[in-house]
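hiii, so i know i said id send this last week but things got crazy w the move. better late than never?? heres the sequnce for the chain we talked about at the cafe, plus the structure i predicted for it. fair warning i was half asleep when i ran it
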Amino acid sequence: MKKRAFTLVELLVVIAIIAMLLGVLVPAINKAREQAKSTICKSRLSQLFMAATLWAENNDGWSPPASWSWPNPMKRSETTYGPNPGSLQRYSSTSREGGALYVCPSSTNLKWFKWAGAGSGNQDSDVTYAINGWMAFNPSSEGLSPGTPASSTSRSEYGEKDVYWTEHGVTKLINVRIPKDTVFFIDHEFYAVTKKTFNPFIPPEMLVIPTLTRWHNKRSSDYYGKGNIAWVDGHVSIEPSDLSKPIVRGEKIRWQYYFFDH
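okay and structure toks below
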């Protein structure tokens, strides 16, 4: 009995069908993979919130300071500095030095920011979550704090001798006026959100400190995607749709509302 072989047309049709199926399945698989990473990211933000809350309970209700992600004692490269009472290491059972808790799974393919500390040389920034800088250390001249304003207890604006660097933040959590609308931690390549490191309306390379941020579901044509946020009231969610609302003359800049301008 003579065997019937595939014709060239039939083979091309099969190849075309397979290509169409791949075209449908690959985006769906990638979307499912990103959703899984985003879920892990939200879980880690929840754990950071819990660690920060426990820290605050043991420190008179203050927000953690700018050094929240650094270990205790303070280390940069191979140099060990003094103690870092602001570290969340004790409450999170890990630190930024190889600790997965401090890294968003969706950020691991990004070129991380390299930051040179005073006298320390360059060091990889192995933390991809940022604390709200207006709660942690920003001077009041950069915007209203969402609680107790910065005071004269700061011995310098930035640096190890600043109480807002290692001792406590500028805000007591109980004084945050709208906890459900105030960012505590957000996806971000730098350890703190400030006007120098965050602006939804300009490319990252145009920031004072060029910083990648909010990378979930980012399209190649966009500056940014969406960010996961741990809010002061404890809930974790993707950023509100109006966080990147275009600036309208006569209206307040919307993203600033979620950080300090209530």
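btw The longest helix spans residues 8-57. thought thatd interest u
miss u guys!!
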